[in-house]
Write a structure and sequence with these properties.
The structure is a homodimer of 308-residue chains. The first copy, chain A, has 308 residues and is of the alpha/beta class. Chain A contains eleven helices and twelve strands. Chain A has a six-stranded parallel β-sheet with strand order 3-2-1-4-5-6. Chain A has a six-stranded mixed β-sheet with strand order 7-8-9-10-12-11, with helices on both faces. In chain A, a hairpin with a 2-residue loop joins strand 11 (281-282) and strand 12. The longest helix of chain A is centred in the first third of the chain and has 16 residues, at 12-27. Chain A starts with a strand and ends with a helix. Chain A binds chain B through residues 94-113, 126, 295, 300, 303, and chain B through 94-113, 126, 295, 300, 303. Strand 6 of chain A pairs antiparallel with strand 6 of chain B, so a sheet runs across the interface.
């Protein structure tokens, strides 16, 4: 039985891709079961509840040599601990290829599109398998989530076409209204502890010899987040020290106005924001303008900066 | 213009995959041109001559940042020098994933099948593009070459199906007879220098801190090769020292009888043959039985042995 999972600190694409790919593999004669590597965020919980789908089980470890399929990630720092001792048989992803290696020839499918869901739709079409209605709803939700309802610069024509193809199968007549409900659920942060807010959509990247943590909070209500700035900065300092990071930033992305105001942990991060992005930091917040995509607008720039 | 190329010391799959994938990308609106990273072997020269296809041009370097598509390989040790400074936009392969990384999301397609040609056929079918007759002949030749006419344990049902699908398009009525002609061309080694014989199908692999060179000569006439054993051992010693390798072996695979007698450069290689494969070495030749696939039966065992 192949274990299928998305990245740590899962988002909607990571969770739904695991569910849909496990189902697709099983339908194609390769038994597979979906797992998650962390708690559901508010948006994903909303999506699963609306779809009537049970959350995949939490996975914390697997025995050496266990067969796994990775979705929506490929770097070991974003995956299950001990990944290098597991047997990776399948990967479906839309990120840059990182430090993944496989011990045997595997099935790898990476397309440069806005979300894993778009790749998964293609796999159904290529295999001449209909997308089941529940899977269509999960995939559509992931497209809307990862592309911020087509606002993100990571959006490709293929993602728009995927959403248009999936919506009628999913039975969602008003896609815009559904996206707004998803984003409202995501922005309902309530009394979530600051350390949880930091980790909701959080990934660690190796840059040149350095290790940086990059968090993102996508919200329709940035004012709420900045109201908790002191708490968040404390959580960031604690995490940076505990994880032995060289840098840690937390981007607060205003989904509707498409802006990015990024909390920086300290002076060294502020200097990198200035040098890499030409962004000024005031009161602990760097103005990154309309760079709302970590994958397309933050990571490549930092990678380039640190490799010089 | 994307530069498309297979591995160093190209074989038939590497050369034909570059030609066919460059054509496919171009037909899909992404201009691409095929190159080769080394001299054609006798089999590949026969295949191109019979197909009326001009050899791709030799490529020795590209400027930093140039866009490239890799076929039939992904590890930097088997690719163009300075690969890590190039922009890898596409990979089509059937080997294990090695040390490849990409700076941006790319199109990656790896399937665990017997040759790259089988994956390329799938890409045509998925895109609803007919395979052009010349491309069908090139792809069929690659399937026959990489699977040793379906004798190699790397052969999958998909490779047999690909060959059956391609033969009528290629206009090849007797596939077995064509395969025998290919193998005769490959075995016609004439007065080729020993250093060239060694490098005809040769790859360098990192095995847990060590660097090993693994050569293969697939032939219908092993007696000819062993008649030149002294010359070959001298060439192997020279290469091992010049390339700073920890080990170097040259497998002589009898295609028709499906046996592997492997020349070892020295005592240390003989000890590894014994420890990893339980194979005895006599007179500089280790008997590896019916292990005729480097990819499936030699590399994984050595990798496992050196990682302990």
């Amino acid at each position: 039985m192949i274990a299928v999972f998305g990245h740590l600190n899962p988002d909607t694409d990571a969770i739904t891709a695991a569910l849909v790919y496990a189902n697709l593999l099983s339908r194609q004669g390769t038994p597979a079961v979906a797992y998650r590597l962390g708690e559901l965020n508010f948006e994903t919980a909303f999506v699963l509840r609306e779809a009537g789908v049970t959350s995949p089980e939490l996975l914390s470890s697997l025995p050496d040599g266990h067969q796994v399929a990775l979705v929506d990630h490929n770097e070991s720092a974003q995956s299950l601990g001990g990944l290098k001792k597991l047997s990776v048989t399948h990967v479906v992803d839309h990120h840059r290829l990182g430090d993944l290696e496989t011990s045997h020839p595997a099935t790898l499918r990476f397309d440069p599109v806005g979300c894993t869901a778009t790749v998964l739709l293609r796999l159904h079409l290529e295999a001449n398998l209909p997308v089941e209605p529940t899977d269509a709803r999960l995939l559509l939700s992931a497209v809307l989530s990862d592309t911020l309802h087509f606002r993100s610069p990571t959006t490709t024509p293929a993602d728009r076409e995927a959403a248009a193809f999936l919506a009628p199968i999913a039975g969602i007549a008003d896609v815009t209204a559904y996206a707004m409900l998803m984003f409202a659920a995501k922005s309902d942060l309530g009394d979530t502890p600051a350390s949880t807010l930091l980790k909701m959509d959080y990934k660690v990247f190796p840059f040149g010899g350095q290790k940086w943590g990059l968090g993102v909070i996508e919200t329709t209500n940035p004012g709420y987040v900045f109201g908790r700035q002191t708490e968040l900065l404390n959580a960031m300092r604690t995490e940076k020290s505990a994880a032995g990071l060289d840098g840690l930033i937390l981007s607060v992305v205003d989904i509707l106005n498409e802006t990015n105001h990024t909390l920086v942990t300290g002076e060294s991060e502020a200097e990198v924001m200035q040098a890499a992005f030409g962004a000024t930091t005031q009161g602990g917040v760097a103005d990154l303008g309309n760079r709302i995509s970590r994958k397309k607008q933050i990571v490549p720039t930092l990678e380039n900066y640190f490799s010089q």
